[in-house]
């Protein structure tokens, strides 16, 4: 019964799960490549120091973002035109283009939705569910063949052609379960099937009404290590009622652009924190080595299909 439960879904979903596995394996290379290529902030650097360096060399600065890889990107206006660049944290100067990688964008569209919009996302979710089902039934079949869980890595008998599927499966199954389970979580989140649990700071009803405080002088930024930064969106200096929006790994809040006071703050909810972990586990962003391992395990799918 278990064998039939494993075989027939596998035959039906073979092409889809192979496509998702190969595209996922290819995507697993990008977080590691980005981590190696991006200039990294020195230990102990604060957001105040970083933003001060960037603002000094980029008049019209509008936003600073830090990716999980550590890459710092800035957006600003120059001569009325929007500009962006990867930033060297040591100097605040441009270190490269911030334009998205076209191959990565294409692979992401293929992997997430097969270029079919919401219908494609549902098909991809079905593929992840099939992979999870195949992994679960495969675990039972391998355990039966080797004589129990304690003998999971026991040597197999027989010709290589007959052993290859099991040899690959008992190594790759951990990664396949993790990748498919996190994919289903992300799909459920996309279609709003999970509790939102979102928390966002309330825009302040009152501000100081002043502008011009240097970013390097804002106390909240002076106390914040760059490693905890997600983004800093700057207030419009021509609008005294506007405020800076700071997002960190712990939450987000509005800062007064005139005196640097934290006007409102919202910590991440447990659901937001959990979703962030799931995203990291699935994409490898912020865990490049894990991403490479999962990508390597995913390459076993076309061999087993």
Automatic annotation (TrEMBL):
GO molecular function: any one?
A: transferase activity
Keyword terms of this UniProt record = Membrane, Transferase, Transmembrane, Transmembrane helix
Record Pfam families: PepSY_TM
Q: Which InterPro entries match?
A: PepSY-ass_TM
The organism's superkingdom is given as Bacteria
Q: What is this protein called?
A: N-acetylglucosamine transferase
- The record lists the membrane-crossing segments as 122-143, 164-186, 287-304
**What species is given as this protein's source?**
Paracoccus solventivorans
Family matches, as PANTHER family: IRON-REGULATED INNER MEMBRANE PROTEIN-RELATED
């Amino acid at each position: 019964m278990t064998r039939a439960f494993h075989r027939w879904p596998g035959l039906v979903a073979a092409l889809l799960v192979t496509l998702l596995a190969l595209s996922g394996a290819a995507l697993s290379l990008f977080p590691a490549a980005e981590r190696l290529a991006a200039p990294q902030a020195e230990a102990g650097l604060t957001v105040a120091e970083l933003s001060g360096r960037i603002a000094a060399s980029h008049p019209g600065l509008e936003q600073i973002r830090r990716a999980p890889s550590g890459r710092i990107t800035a957006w600003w206006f120059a001569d009325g035109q929007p500009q962006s660049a990867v930033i060297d944290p040591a100097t605040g100067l441009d270190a490269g283009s911030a334009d998205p990688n076209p191959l990565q964008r294409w692979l992401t569209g293929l992997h997430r939705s097969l270029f079919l919009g919401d219908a494609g996302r549902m098909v991809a979710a079905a593929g992840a569910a099939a992979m999870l089902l195949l992994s679960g039934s495969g675990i039972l079949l391998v355990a039966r063949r080797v004589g129990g869980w304690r003998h999971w890595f026991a040597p197999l008998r027989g010709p290589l052609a007959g052993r290859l599927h099991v040899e690959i499966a008992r190594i790759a199954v951990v990664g396949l379960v993790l990748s498919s389970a996190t994919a289903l979580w992300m799909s459920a989140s996309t279609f709003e099937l999970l509790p939102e649990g979102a928390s966002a700071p309330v825009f302040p009803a009152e501000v100081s009404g002043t502008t011009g405080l240097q970013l390097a002088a804002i106390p909240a930024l002076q106390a914040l290590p760059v490693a905890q930064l997600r983004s800093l969106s700057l207030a419009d200096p021509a609008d005294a009622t506007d405020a800076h929006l700071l997002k960190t790994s712990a939450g987000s809040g509005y800062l007064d652009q005139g005196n640097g006071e934290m006007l409102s703050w919202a910590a991440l909810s447990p659901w937001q924190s959990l979703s962030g972990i799931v995203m990291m586990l699935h994409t490898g962003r912020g865990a490049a080595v894990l991403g490479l391992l999962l990508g390597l395990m995913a390459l076993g799918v076309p061999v087993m299909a």
